[in-house]
Amino acid sequence: MNSGNACYHSVQNLLSSSLLPKNLKIQIYRTIILPVVLYGCETWSLTLKKEHRLRVFENRVLRRIFGPKRGKITREWRKVHNEEINDLYSSPNIVWVIKWRRIRWVGHVARMGRREAYTGFWWGKPEGKRPLGRPRHRWEDNFKMDLQEVGRGGMVWIELAQENDRWWAFVNVVMNLWVL
Asked: Is 170 buried (19+), middle (13-18) or exposed (0-12) by CB count in 10 A?
């Protein structure tokens, strides 16, 4: 997030400029800011707090791009509401992109065989005693929740992931479900 904020602040004058069209500003956001923020997001274990922070960041950037809006009746300037931002920004939000990348990446790792990433992914129980309290949110838990969110909670995904064409068809179906 810190790198994303630094990147955002370096181009914020471009994003608020009235000389550039909105589609070019959105392109700047997608090509310059978003890759910095989402670097390595496939391996993140997202909590609700982190999801909220990412949505707040994205809304702040999009609010800068779309600028204030003039009221129809009062003719006074006001901030663009989150629902209006979602309507104006036709692409999926940042959390959906992270979930889609996570599902895409797990298929790639499942097809790797017995390399470092694969063995790290399927690492068994760590030795030792775990700390008191609720167990931490694991990456695998996030992935299973993503599958439940699209109605595929009980599927045997590891077998599907072994076939590249079928896995990519599944990933594209998942992305279309989240976009709609």
From this structure: buried
